[in-house]
Amino acid sequence: MSPKTLYDKIWDAHVAHEAEDGTTLLYIDRHLVHEVTSAQAFEGLRMTGRTVRAPEKTIAVPDHNVPTTPGREDPAQMTPESRIQVAALDTNAKEFGVHYYPVSDVRQGIVHIVGPEQGWTLPGMTVVCGDSHTATHGAFGALAHGIGTSEVEHVLATQTLIQKKSLNMKVEITGKLMPGVTAKDITLAVIGETGTGGGTGYVIEYCGEAIRDLSMEGRMTVCNMAIEGGARAGLIAPDQTTYDYVKGRPHAPKGAQWEAALDWWKTLYTDEGAHFDKVVTLKGEDIQPVVTWGTSPEDVLPITATVPFPEDFTGGKVEAAARSIEYMGLTPGQKLTDIEIDTVFIGSCTNGRIEDFRAVAEVVKGKKIKDGMRAMIVPGSGLVRAQAEEEGLADIFIEAGFEWRLAGCSMCLAMNPDQLSEGERCAATSNRNFEGRQGYKGRTHLVSPAMAAAAALTGRLTDIRELM
Amino acid sequence: MEKFEKFTGIAAPMPLVNIDTDMIIPKMFLKSIARTGFGKNLFDEMRFNRDGTEIADFVLNKPQYRKSEILIAGDNFGCGSSREHAPWALEDFGIKVIVSTSFADIFFNNCFKNGMLPVVLPQEQVDLLMKDAEKGENARMSVDLEAQEITTSDGDVIKFEVDAFKKHCLLEGLDDIGLTMEKEASITSFEKAAEQARPWV
Ligand code: SF4
What we know:
The complex is a heterodimer of chains A (about 475) and B (about 200).
Chain A: H1 6-12, E1 15-18, E2 24-27, E3 30-33, H2 39-48, E4 58-60, H3 80-96, E5 99-100, H4 111-117, E6 126-129, E7 143-146, H5 149-158, E8 160-163, E9 167-174, H6 183-194, E10 202-207, H7 209-212, H8 216-224, E11 233-235, H9 240-246, H10 255-265, E12 278-283, E13 290-292, E14 300-302, H11 317-328, E15 343-346, H12 348-351, H13 354-364, E16 374-377, H14 382-390, H15 393-400, E17 403-404, E18 425-428, E19 443-446, H16 449-458
Parallel strand pairs in A: 3-4, 3-6, 4-5, 6-7, 9-10, 9-12, 10-11, 15-16, 15-18, 16-17, 18-19
Antiparallel strand pairs in A: 1-2, 2-8, 13-14
Chain B: E1 7-14, H1 21-24, H2 44-47, E2 70-73, H3 85-93, E3 97-100, H4 105-113, E4 117-120, H5 123-133, E5 140-144, E6 149-151, E7 157-159, H6 164-172, H7 176-181, H8 184-197
Parallel strand pairs in B: 1-2, 2-3, 3-4
Antiparallel strand pairs in B: 1-5, 5-6, 6-7
Bound molecules: iron/sulfur cluster.
């Protein structure tokens, strides 16, 4: 048998039907559902008299619209449209009998944090969700990607997705990371290298020593942004770190089933000599703490650099860079560390997990954020919040002057009341710095949690290594 | 989806060219979580005054066209966004067939997904149907997808082309989901085998 990649193996294990032209019905093991992209899909089922084929494999949680301030059960905190979307999910989840974590449940949170946390996401699975950052689950060696509303309906009704196979791409990070460099810096550095279209048509497998050394939280951060590099999905082969994270989670296998699962998971790696259509290699030692200066996640530079000149680029990027610099209110040649920040947002499915908060606490412990700074920490789930409180992290944040919020997507996409106002500048741990993403005319710099914490203290983009 | 049956219905003339998806259903109606009920806002800005009263000379407000099931439209119908709200609104109103010299690509495909038949014909034939539609309620056209024919009130028969696969899907009432459901046996046997191989999933 010819050697296979990890992607090949998971794909082959989920082909329910293949047509002559390669169009495949891929069986879906886990379908995660949130309030923004599911309402019309459920409505479609109702109109056609269909049901959810596998409600036991379907998990619903509201996250995008929910307020993150105390007393949020009060519907008056939401805009009418948000209220309607959340209420619709509530009704649909109950009517169709899928697993459901309502806002009042401590397990509620961002769908991509809840899935792994509850043990719904396991190695070798196919996972989909009507959200592009579904790539996050690839950290477990699960084939996970985002889908549109009509596909949500298709999966609900048939538990399959109509797919054609992507190409294989390998991203290898060799060696060790330098102090102050995190998973977020890896994933941003990769996008800086490949561009936002570099992964288009591929499924990326991340490998190499620096990836192996990451915790599950770090691996999720890396895979989360595979989509920002254009890839359908990102994958990391499961290993002992993965098994240790999964074991004992509420929906993880137990007893003899655990042993059987483990036997299979241990076969999930890329065979020696398997073919990759594209290979990118970065040296771990070369990666520095980075920050985005523009309005595309590929606009990445080391924190020690200066704002580029549009003429530094070629082709259509010249105009795009000029537009970005203008939108971001920057001056070419300006040192990145001179850029002043009004707001700090720590959270999202990229960096809203316990390890991220520990990194922040380490930086801000016993210190105060800059006067006038708005700094917000939003846990990825109610359980992350509870754990941070138990570990004393929340007290550190509150004493430093941070707002300590309830779980949700919050200012990552600003569908709830957490938004930037016009011209406001934010250091954010989320994944998208598009124009208007965090609020109309808001300006976003993507950074790691430690760098966001540093910016909160100094009031400007800051090299974390200065504070170490 | 319902099967597309042969039918006879009223055709409304809409000679305006470049009718875009925002004209079909304005943006402000897109925040809904439903996909039915858009029919009452179909062509909202052309159909209603600001105060909600009807604009009397808009074609679908005229007594003879209020129950139209066929639209004879100007060139490049359905341009604009990829949102499915536009076909949802037309379908909800009761439109089953739209005839034009050309359609925007995404809209064209979205029609089939929602059980509607878009028909592309050369200018002279669209003109002929337009004239027939202008006769009002008396002009009841028949559409036979099986035979790929539209018959005017005068008995003129106009042949049209349609992709064989899309035709099959409409006639059988198959959407993507319907088609996948035809492979139900494959899915079920996959599930059985997977249950054996990976019982923990
Ligand atoms: S946190 Fe942001 S990126 Fe993640 S699911 Fe929510 S809105 Fe999407």
